[in-house]
Amino acid sequence: MSRPQPLPPDLIDPLARVAGRVRMLSTSPIWFEEVGSTSDVAVGLAERGAPEGTVVVANAQSAGRGRLGRSWASPPGAGLYLSAVLYPPRPDSLLTLATGVAVSGALVRATGLATALKWPNDVFVGRRKLAGILAEAGTAADGRSFVVLGIGINVLAAAYPPDVAARATSLETELGRAVDRGLVLAELIAAVDAACVRLREGDAEGVLAEWRHLAAPLLGRPVEWNEGETHLSGIARDIDAQGALLVDAGGVPRRVVGGEVRWL
What we know:
Number of domains: 2
CATH topology of the largest domain: BirA Bifunctional Protein, domain 2
Order of helices and strands: HEHEEHEEEEHHHHEEEEE
Shape: globular
Largest sheet: 7 strands, mixed
Strand order of the largest sheet: 1-2-3-7-6-5-4
Helix content: 25-40%
Strand content: 25-35%
C-alpha cells in the first residue's frame, strides 16, 4: 500500500483558514499522491478504530469506485478524491443526500459555480456529471458501526476514458479558468462537516428542503428502473422524509429506495 505524504503547500493555508468552522472532520487530512481508493484506506482505518472525522485525500486513485460497483476515473491531478470516517449514533438514510447539498454549497463558495443534484448521489452541471458520492458502512473492531463517506470531484479537464468523457465535466471546463483546489478542498470539508452536524442536531427537514431546491432542474423528468425482473418507468416527483425517490408511474405512486435509476 502507498504511504501517506506531507500535504502539498497549496492545500495547507486554505485548510487552516476553515479550521474554526469545522467541528467533526479533520482539517489535517491524510494525503496520498496515489492510492487504490481513498475509501478502502478509510475503511481500513475505521475498522481499526480511527477517530471520527479522519479524512483521507488523494491526488489520484488507481481503483476509485462509485455506486453499484462502477469505477470512478481518477487521473493524477485531475480531481479531488476524499473519504471521511464517521460513527453515526444511529443509521441515517439522509447522509448521502445531505452530502450532495454540502458539495453543491462548497462549490458555490469556492468557485461560484452553481450545480444541480440528481438522486441519489450525483452532482451535475446541465447533463454532465461533476461529482459523485458513495457511503459505505461497516463495523469497527470495538463493535461500533461506521460510515465512510467518499466524494470525488472533477477539477481539471482530463483525458478520461471515452465512455466517461461523454458524460463528465469538470470545474475548470465549466468555469473556463483555473481553480484553486486547496480552496475547493477546504470548503468541501467545512460544508460536509456542517451537513453532518445538521443531521445529528435534527435538522433533517432543512436538509431535505435544500436538496429539493438543488434537484429542481431534474425532478419532473422521466426515469426508469428495475424491481427484480420488472422494468418500471415514470416521472420523478419528489423525495420522502427517509430520502427515497417518489415516482409517478402512470398514476401509481412508487417509492424507490435503491438500485439504478436511469434518468431519461
